[in-house]
Amino acid sequence: MNRQVDQLWENILDDIRKDVNGNSFTTWFKPIKPEKFENNTLTIQVPSQFFYEWLETHYSDAIKKAMIHRFGPEAKLLYSIIMDSSIQSVQLPSINKANRKSSFPSNISERFTFENFVEGDCNKFAKAAALSVANSPGGTTFNPLLIYGGVGLGKTHIIQAIGNFAKFRNLVKRVLYVDSERFTMDFINSIQKNKTTEFSSLYRSVDLLIVDDIQFFSNKERTQEEFFHTFNTLHNKGKQIVLSSDRPPKEMKGIEERLTSRFQWGLVVDIQLPDLETRQAILQKKAEENGLELPGDIFEFIATNITSNIRELEGALIRLLAYSSLNGEDITLDLAKRLLKDVCIPQMRAISIEFIQKSTAEYFNFPDDMMRAKTRKKEIAQARQIAMYLCKTITDNSLKTIGLHFGGRDHTTVIHAISCIEKLIKKDSKIRDHVDAIKNKIEIAQL
Question: Which of 3, 28, 78, 365 is deepest in the core (most CB within 10 A)?
């Protein structure tokens, strides 16, 4: 029976190979073991919950296609998940002081964990690869794991999260994190003090070596030579190596070819710029960590205006928190605009009367052509007056031009509308909230 099941699974794999590249196939399908085939249902064993979730998320279509081809449309697939604690990856545990047994100086910051790493489309693959390595250091094909991307996108966070995860689950005894500058300086000091043997012994005795910003090894010949031998020693022992850089290996200048070749032995994966939703999620996470509840429009404003990297996002929020704490002032959207004007996108697109009409109509949930209609229905007339007020306060258009856009009304009608709304804003908090909400909506949409 086992031989028959094995052959059935091999047939499935033959089909999957056509849709999955070689490296991914080896990583995600080779570890799978077929268990049984009964009642047109194939049961396969996967190493962990994380492994199962990755297959379901990324390869379910390829698997389904192969199953239908081999067994027909009624075929079913069941997963048997190994739940042994040494390889289970569905849970991301908090760092527990009770687990801190090792006195080896890892240099890892405990604040960098998978728990507080915000996942988005920009970093999903990198996080998945990092989790795989963290669960089984040296036991995957991701050795070395090299994560690259621009400044401030979370590379340091995710590579240190690997070290924290593996260390505090006792999957490794010795973890060492350094940036390339620290590695270089340690090496130079060892030469000056005639302690190169001690230096080599330290770096080659670890179970998990994490080196940040390896692009700065550029043109440092002696350092590259030492790192080359360190890399070889660890790799030959089956120890895990994790690296980061600001560019892929092929684009590194001043790095020896034998090193760039080794950097590509395992998995090279990038982290990209976060999209708007991910930027907002990062800000919300940071606020939660500081025990703050802020209006969503503040997150939206910052995330819309700061797009270059995560450090600037967090820096903007910290700036607001510091100002609020020192001055005892609540954090509002107006405060955010005032304090962050030097880091925000400098230019806004011109705001048109039509756009203001459309935004106001959408806010009150009626067609924007009602702004130009002759109706005097109270709710529409008041919305029209608010739109006229906003046209005057946030555009450079004349009263006559504004009136023409509102069904050919004259400038006296516009003056009356503006006057009415100005009075209502002072005495009616509901109207004031409506005006502020529409204004914020318009400004954010135009950034």
Answer: 28
